[in-house]
C-alpha cells in the first residue's frame, strides 16, 4: 500500500465505501430489472455495459485531460508550475505526476488519474497568471490530495454509472422492441424502463454530489495541514472565486461540465436547491474550515 504524508481522512474513506456500495447495489437492481423486462436484449446489455465500464476506467484520465484542453509541459516550458509540483510532491512523499497546462482564462486547476502512476495535474493559464507561488502551492496540494486519497478514481467510477444507466436503457429498449411486438407489454416496457432509469440516475446523482462536496472539504483540510499555510489556500480560494465571477458567462458554461474535477466550480448559485446539487461546498464553508485549521495550528 502506498504511503504519503497527506492527513488521512476516515470520514472520506467511509463515505467513499458507503457511496460505492449503495451505487453498486442500486445498479445490480437496475440491471436485474432491465434483464427481467427486456429478456431478449440481455446479451447486448451485459456486453455493452462491460465494455463501456472498462473503457471508462482505463481511459478516463486521458478523456478528461483531452476534454479540458490539457497539454503536458516540460520543466523548461513551465518552470514555476513544475517547481511548485516538485515541492508539494516532496512534502507529501508522492511520485511526481504529469504536469499540464490548459489554455483558458478561467482560473482553475484539476487532477485526474485512476492511480498515482497515471496522474495528471493541470492548471489553467488564467490561474497561473493570477496566483502567487504560495497560493498556487496550496491549490496544487489540494488537487494532489484527491489522488492520494483515491477519491478521483471513486468519483470517476461513480459518475460514470449514471451515464451507463442511460446508455443501457437505450440499448435495452432498442433491442427489446426489435424482438418484441407492438402489444400491451411493449407499451408497458416503454413506460417502466425510462422511469426506472430516471430514478436510478437521480439517486446516483445525489449520492455522488454528496460525496463530491465532502471530498472538496477533505482536500482543503489535507492541503492546509500539509503545507502548514491554510491562509494561502484561503487566499487562493477567495481570489479564484472572485475572478471566476468576472469571466463571461459563455466561457464559464463551457467549463461547467467539468465542475466535479475543478478546484472551484465554474458556476455556482446561492439557492438552497442548487447547494444540494452542487459539486462543491460554498465558499463560506470552505473558508470557515480553513479558519478553524489556522486556529488549530496556532494552538499547537
Automatic annotation (TrEMBL):
> Does the keyword Transmembrane belong to this entry?
yes
Q: Where in the cell is it found?
A: Cell membrane
Per its record, what are the GO molecular function terms?
metalloendopeptidase activity; zinc ion binding
Q: Which family is this sequence assigned to?
A: Belongs to the peptidase M48B family.
The EC number on file is 3.4.24.-
Indicate the transmembrane segments per the record: 12-35, 41-59, 152-175, 187-207
* Protein name according to UniProt: Protease HtpX homolog
The residues the record assigns to binding Zn(2+) are 142, 146, 216
Task: Kindly give the InterPro entries that the UniProt entry links to this protein.
Answer: HtpX_protease (IPR050083), Pept_M48_protease_HtpX (IPR022919), Peptidase_M48 (IPR001915)
Q: Which cofactor does it need?
A: Zn(2+)
What topology does the record note for this protein and the membrane?
A: Multi-pass membrane protein
Species name for this entry? Actinacidiphila rubida
Cofactor stoichiometry and binding remark: Binds 1 zinc ion per subunit.
